[in-house]
Amino acid sequence: MVSDCTANSSDGKAIRSGQLKATMPPEAPIVRVASLRYAYRRHVALHDISFDLGPGVTALLGPNGSGKTTLLKCVLGLLPTEAGTITRDERGRTDGVESFGYVPQSPELPGFSTVHDAVAYAGWLYGMSPGKLDAAAHGILELLGLTDLARRRIRTLSGGQRQRVAIAAGMIHDPPLLVLDEPSAGLDPGQRLRVREAVARVTQARATLLSTHLLEDVRHVADRILVLVNGKVGFDGTVDDLYRVIGPSHTGDLGADFEAGYDALIRTLGGDSE
Ligand SMILES: Nc1ncnc2c1ncn2[C@@H]1O[C@H](COP(=O)(O)OP(=O)(O)OP(=O)(O)O)[C@@H](O)[C@H]1O
């Protein structure tokens, strides 16, 4: 299925060019969110949110307070759906193993444990059978280029190494849905690059929802961008779609253009760019 790239201004009118096409969502979504609404008592945090997630990286962007964390929690089933539905395709999972992996912004890994054991333990928490943990831990550490760290204690790792271990722990059970909440926050540029490479390496066949404030990460790893503003989806399209929305102001500096385009988009949508 091919869908229109959409951007809605604060008064609900489409603001994007008429011919834009995004390649997402694919035919068989791994997650389908339909007419989702969520309120904290009388404060409505999410209004009528609908989108499909298929394989690839979807970046979730938006100003502070726009509803990103609330949406992640709803998708993971950590908050109840108040109105609307969230359907997760379990992709054949009947063995009690969780169909999602979650890497929180500040993952808590046991400092005394080795990297291998911490990742294997996460697999056990996700419901994997004990007999599979060792091989799965070796496999995911190898995939993420972390084999050399396998015997190191977590407490001896740098922030970037720890974050990559957290990604390994979040997906040792090979979930069809991976949710990453600001995985590069607080890291230096070199560490961010390694984390970005890790994200790019593991996301081919699964739906990855990446909440981030770092436009650099979005530009490099995202297949699709969802922008939340005031609890509503304001933009849904590809990175290229966003460049096309920028239009004639395109200067040729992709990084600067992307930031400028995003800021302009947020202002048009009625939010405060950060
Ligand atoms: N437990 C809560 N009780 C009441 N209101 C809440 C609660 N958690 C969040 N909110 C409100 O819901 C709205 C969405 O918050 P949310 O944390 O989802 O935004 P966010 O986009 O993740 O923000 P940030 O980028 O700052 O992390 C905000 O107005 C926030 O103040």
TrEMBL record:
Chain intervals with Polar residues compositional bias: 1-11
**Signal sequence, renumbered to the chain:** none
| Keywords tagged on the record | Antibiotic resistance, ATP-binding, Hydrolase, Nucleotide-binding, Transport
Please indicate if the UniProt record lists RNA-binding as a keyword.
Answer: no
Name the InterPro entries on file.
Answer: AAA+_ATPase, ABC_transporter-like_ATP-bd, ABC_transporter-like_CS, ABC_transporter_ATP-binding, P-loop_NTPase
Q: Name one GO cellular component term.
A: plasma membrane
Q: Which domain of life does the UniProt lineage start with? A: Bacteria
The molecular function GO annotations come to: ATP binding; ATP hydrolysis activity
Any one of the GO BP annotations: response to antibiotic
What are the residue boundaries of the ABC transporter domain, all occurrences included? Answer: 31-255
Q: Where is this region: Disordered?
A: 1-20
| SUPFAM superfamilies linked to this entry | P-loop containing nucleoside triphosphate hydrolases
**The EC number(s) this enzyme carries:** 3.6.3.28
What the record says about family reads: Belongs to the ABC transporter superfamily.
By what name is this protein known? Phosphonate-transporting ATPase
Q: Which organism is it from?
A: Nostocoides australiense Ben110
